[in-house]
Design a protein that fits this description.
The protein has 435 residues and is of the alpha/beta class. 46% of the residues lie in helices and 16% in strands. It binds uracil.
Length: 435
C-alpha cells in the first residue's frame, strides 16, 4: 500500500490490478484507514484517469452483492438523483413510468443531514415497508412492474467504508471519487439502464454547472462502459424542487402531481426523466412519444393507481393515495410573513433543508428518529413578487421550540431584490442522450 500511495502521490496511474487488490484488501480490513486516507488525498490532488476510475468503480461494485434481476423479463430501468431539497421525484416518477409498462426495480436510501430519503418519505403510508427480501422484490416487479427496496443487501461495502472515510478527511468532492461511488452502487443494483439526475446549484453537491456536467459525463461514461445504457439530466437545485419540503408533505405533493395538479417545475422534471427512462427501456422512440404516454398515465389515473398498488404490495395502507388528508399531520401550523416587499432574488436551498431538519423532519445522526409530519410548504419561489406581510411559507411542527428555531433559520434563506431576477432553466442539459 505504501508503494501505491507513493505512485499516486507522484502523479502516476495505478493499474486495474492494483486498484482491484487495494479495494479487496481494504474491504477485508487488511489496509488501515490511515493509509487509505493518504491514498484518497493523493487522488484528490492528482486525479484519476478514465481507466483508473472505471477500475475503481468495478472493484467497489464487486466488493459485495451484485443483484441478479435476470428473472425479471424486459429491460429494468433505475433512476438516481445526486440529492437535493424537496426532491420527491422517485415517489411520483416510478409509478408514472411503471404505468407505461416499464419495469422499475429500485433500491433507495434513507435521508441523512438536510436532504431527505425516499424510504423515509414512503413510510408516511402506515405499514409500508422497504425491508423486503430479494425474492419479494423480484416477484413484485414481475407482478406489478415496480418495487422499491431499502438497502438491506450488502451493496458495494467498499464504497460504504470509503465514503465514511472521505467524509472525515475532506476528500468527498473529487469528481472521480464521487462518480465511482455513485456508479458502483448503481452497477451492483442490477438494472439494465440508468437515468441519472445530476443536481447543480446552492442545494447540490456540484454548486457550479460546469462541474455538474463534468460529473454527468464521467458517470455516463462509467455506466455505458459497463454495458448499461446511461443518460444523465443536469437539473437545477438552486432552490427547492416544488413547494413541499418534509416527508409526508412531499408525499402529498407527489400525489398531487400524479393527479395532474403538481407544481410546474416538479412535473417538468418528472416528465423529462420519465421520458428518458421510457426511451432507455425501448418503450418509446422519441421524447415526444414518451411524454405523451406519461401524460396519458396521469390523465387516465393509471399512474396514481400504480402508486396505490405498490404501497399495498409492500404492506402499506393505500387509502392516503386517494385521500392525502390521512397522511401524518403536524399539530402546529405557522405562516411566515414577509418583512418587506420585493422580488425573491435567491433562496438558499441548504437553509431550507436545515429548517426541515430543525423541525424534526431529518436525521442529525444515523440513529435519530424522524417526525414524518413536519416540514414546510413554500408559497414563493425565485422570481416571485412578495408584498410585505404576505406569507412566504407555512411551517408544520409538533414542538414550539423547534418551530422557533426553524423560523429563525428560514429568515436567512430568502433574499430579496428590487428587480425580478432572470429565470434560470430547470433543465440545464442532458449527457449521453442521442435522441
Ligand atoms: N453520493 C454518493 O453516493 N457518493 C459520493 O461520493 C457523493 C454523493
Amino acid at each position: 500500500m505504501y508503494d501505491l500511495i507513493m505512485k499516486k502521490r507522484n502523479g502516476r496511474a495505478l493499474t486495474a490490478e492494483e486498484i482491484q487488490e487495494m479495494i479487496q484488501e481494504y474491504t477485508a480490513g487488511h489496509i488501515p484507514d490511515y493509509q487509505m486516507s493518504a491514498m484518497m488525498m493523493a487522488v484528490y490532488f492528482q486525479g484519476m484517469s478514465a481507466d483508473e476510475t472505471a477500475a475503481l468503480t468495478m472493484a467497489m461494485a464487486r466488493s459485495g452483492d451484485m443483484v441478479d434481476l435476470s428473472s425479471i423479463s424486459g429491460v429494468k430501468v433505475d433512476k438516481h438523483s445526486t440529492g437535493g431539497v424537496g426532491d420527491k421525484t422517485s415517489i411520483a416518477l416510478t409509478p408514472m413510468v411503471a404505468a407505461c409498462g416499464v419495469k422499475i426495480a429500485k433500491m433507495s436510501g434513507r435521508g441523512l443531514g438536510h436532504t431527505g430519503g425516499t424510504i423515509d418519505k414512503l413510510e408516511s403510508f402506515p405499514g409500508f415497508t422497504t425491508g423486503i427480501t430479494e425474492e419479494h422484490f423480484v416477484r413484485q416487479v414481475n407482478e406489478i412492474g415496480v418495487a422499491i427496496m431499502g438497502q438491506t443487501l450488502d451493496i458495494a461495502p467498499a464504497d460504504k467504508k470509503l465514503y465514511a472515510l472521505r467524509d472525515v478527511t475532506a476528500t468527498v468532492d473529487q469528481m472521480s471519487l464521487i462518480a465511482s461511488s455513485i456508479m458502483s452502487k448503481k452497477l451492483a443494483s442490477g438494472a439494465d439502464a440508468i437515468v441519472l439526475d445530476v443536481k447543480t446549484g446552492s442545494g447540490a453537491f456540484m454548486k457550479r454547472e460546469e462541474d455538474a456536467f463534468a460529473l454527468a459525463r464521467e458517470m455516463t461514461a462509467l455506466g455505458n462502459g459497463a454495458g448499461k445504457k446511461t443518460i444523465a439530466v443536469v437539473s437545477d437545485m438552486d432552490q427547492p424542487l416544488g413547494y413541499a419540503v418534509g416527508n409526508a408533505l412531499e408525499v402529498e405533493e407527489a400525489i398531487a402531481t400524479l393527479r395532474g395538479a403538481g407544481p410546474q417545475d416538479f412535473t417538468r422534471l418528472c416528465m423529462t426523466l420519465g421520458s428518458y427512462m421510457l426511451i432507455a427501456a425501448g418503450a418509446a422512440q422519441s421524447r415526444e412519444e414518451a411524454e405523451k404516454r406519461l401524460s396519458e398515465a396521469i390523465r387516465n389515473g393509471s399512474a396514481l393507481e400504480k402508486l396505490a398498488e405498490m404501497v399495498r404490495a409492500q404492506g402499506g395502507d393505500p387509502a392516503a393515495v386517494y385521500d392525502p388528508s390521512l397522511l401524518p399531520k403536524a399539530s402546529m401550523i405557522q405562516e411566515i410573513p414577509a418583512l418587506q416587499e420585493g422580488y425573491v432574488e435567491k433562496i438558499d436551498c441548504d437553509e431550507i433543508g436545515v429548517c426541515s431538519l430543525l423541525l424534526g423532519g431529518g436525521r442529525e445522526t444515523k440513529e435519530s428518529v424522524i417526525d414524518l409530519s413536519v416540514g414546510l410548504v413554500l408559497h414563493k419561489k425565485r422570481g416571485d413578487f412578495v408584498q410585505a406581510g404576505e406569507s412566504l411559507a407555512t411551517l408544520y411542527a409538533n414542538d414550539r421550540e423547534r418551530l422557533g428555531a426553524a423560523e429563525q433559520r428560514f429568515r436567512r434563506a430568502y433574499h430579496f431584490g428590487k428587480r425580478q431576477p432572470a429565470q434560470a432553466p430547470l433543465i440545464k442539459g442532458t449527457v449521453g442522450d442521442s435522441f
